[in-house]
Give the backbone structure.
Amino acid sequence: MPGYQAPLRDMQFVLHELLGVTDALSGLPAHAGLDEATINQVLEEGGKFAADIVFPLNHPGDREGCHYDATTRSVTAPQGFRQAYQQYIAAGWPSLACDPDYGGQGLPVVLNNSLYEMLNSANQAWTMYPGLSHGAYECLHAHGSPEQKQRYLPRLVSGEWTGTMCLTEPHCGTDLGLLRTRAEPQADGSYRLTGSKIFISAGEHDLSANIIHLVLARLPDAPPGTRGVSLFVVPKFLPDARGDAGERNAIYCGAIEHKMGIHGNATCQMTLEAATGWLIGEPHRGLNAMFVMMNAARLGVGMQSLGLTEVAYQNALAYARDRQQGRSLSGPAAPSQPADPIIVHPDVRRMLLTARAYAEGGRAFTSYVALMIDRELNHPDEAVRREAADEVALLTPIVKAFLTDNAWIATSEALQVFGGHGYIAEWGMEQYVRDARINMIYEGTNTIQSLDLLGRKVLMDNGEKLRRFGEKIKVFVMQNMSDASMAEFVGPLAELGEKLSKLTGEIGVKAVADRDAVGAAAVPYLRVAGHLVFAYFFARMAKIALASEHSGDDFYQAKLGVARFYFARLLPETAMLIRQARAGVDSLNVPGLAQ
Ligand SMILES: Cc1cc2nc3c(=O)[nH]c(=O)nc-3n(C[C@H](O)[C@H](O)[C@H](O)COP(=O)(O)OP(=O)(O)OC[C@H]3O[C@@H](n4cnc5c(N)ncnc54)[C@H](O)[C@@H]3O)c2cc1C
C-alpha cells in the first residue's frame, strides 16, 4: 500500500525562501499581517488532514467507486468520503481563502494552493468535491447579484453546500457554441431550464446538503454560437425563505460514468427537466462569467497533477531504496546483502529524479502563479493588478497543460520503478497513472490550452505578455551572468529565452499566410514555454541553494542536484520540441487521412 507525507520542507522553501511570500503579501492590505509561523502552521495542519483523513480513503475509494440508485436517482460516494468531508468542513478548511464578508477566513490564494496540492496527493477523487465548490464560489463571487451572493456564498464558504460546473453536452465538449440546453424566462424573473449535460463531476452525491449547479444554457432569443450562451445558477434544492435547502428542483442524475480513473468522484449525466434557475450576470455573456470558474479550475487541475506527481515520487523512492535486484555496475553497494537496492542503478535514479524535478518545478511555478493571483485580486494599485492579471492569463494554460503532461510522464516513470509490481493494483501506482490521465483532458484539453497560449495569449497581443514575462527572466540572467557558479543555469536559460522569442516570431509570420500554422505548432510550443518557466525557477532555486549559509545542508545540496538534473536531462527536450514546432503543417496533410 502506498504512503504519503506532506512535503512541508519544500513548501516552506518555495513560499519563504524562493517567493518571500510574507513580504510580497505585506503589500496587499487584505493579507498584510500574515506571518511565516501562521503559514507554516496552516501547512502543517493541512498536511496532517490530507495524510491522516483523506489519504487512507484513496485506494479503497478507487476500488469501490461511486454507487448509483436508479429509483431515487441518487449517488453515494465511496465509504468514508462523506465522513471525511464532514470533518473537512468542521475544521473550516473550505473557507480558508474565501471572503470574510461571507464567512471566509480571508487567507491568500497561495496558501490555499498548497493545501490543494496536499489534498490532491492524498486523494484527487475526493478533493474534486470541495475543489469544484471553490470554483463555483469564485464565479458567484465575481458575477453573482448581491442577492445571489447572500443566498449561496455563505453556504459554499462553509462547505455545507457544494458546487458543480455544467458545460458539456453529448454533442458539445470543446465547442461550447454548440450547446442546446434551453432556458425559458418566467414571469417571476426565474428561468426554466431543459436539456442534458454529461460528464458533470460531483453532479450528484451524498456529501453535502445541497448542490449548486452552475449551468450554461441558451435563452430563446440567443444568437447562435458562443455569443448566445448564458450562465444560470440551478440549485438541487431550492433555497426556502430562511435560505435552507427546500423544495427539490428538477435537475437529476440519470447515470454515472464508468471510467478509467478518479473512481471516487461521481461523473454524472444530468438532466434538466424544466429545472428552476436564475441568470448569473448578463444574458448571452455566460462564457465570460464561466471563465472565472474555468480559470480557477485550470489552476486546480494543475494542482491535481502536481499532487499526483509528488505522491507517486514519494512511493517510488521508498520502493527503490528497499527493493533489491542486481548489483551496481561500479561494484556492490550492499555487499552483505544478496543484491543491491535498485536505487543504485542510474536509470532508476533517472526515473525518480524525473518525477521529483517535475514536482519541485511545478511547486515553485504554481505557488508563484497563486501569489500573482493574490496580487491581481488585492493590490491597491490598479496598474499592478492589471499587470498581475496579464501574467496569470499568460501562465494559466502553461500550468494546466505542462503540469498535467508532466504528471502523466512522472506517474508512469514512478510506476516503472516498481517493475511488474507497479502494474499490480495493490501497490497503488497504477491508480496514480489512471487518475493523472483525465487531467490532460478536462477543463479544456491540452491542445486547447496550447492554442489558447500561442494563438490568444501570445500572437493576438503581438507577444506583449510573453515579452513582459521574458523581461523578468532577462533581468535575472543579467544579474547572475558574471557569477561563475551560476553559469551552468544562466547560460541555457538565456539561450532558451532567445530561442522561444525567435520561434514565436517565425510562427507569427507563418500564421499570417496560414492559420493552421498555429494549430500545427501549438502543442510543442507550449511545452517549450513550460520548460522556459521551469528553467527560470530552477535557476532561481539553485541560486538560493548556492548562496544559503546552510548550503552544505542536505536539503540545499539536494535542491542543487535536482536543478542540475533538470538542466542536464529534461531541458534538452526543448531542442526536439522546437524542431517539431517548426515542422509546419505540411507533414500533417497526409492524402486520404481526412476522408
Ligand atoms: C471524468 C470527466 C470529468 C469531467 N468533468 C466535467 C465537468 O465537471 N463539467 C463539464 O462541463 N465537463 C466535464 N468534463 C468534460 C470535459 O471537459 C470534456 O470531455 C472536454 O472538454 C473535451 O470535450 P469532448 O470530450 O467533447 O471532446 P471533443 O471536444 O470532442 O474533442 C475531441 C478531440 O478533438 C480535439 N479538438 C476539439 N476541438 C479542437 C480544436 N478547435 N482544435 C484542435 N483540437 C480540437 C480535442 O483536443 C480532443 O483531442 C469531464 C470529462 C470527464 C471525462
Notes: The longest helix spans residues 286-322. The chain has a mean pLDDT of 96.
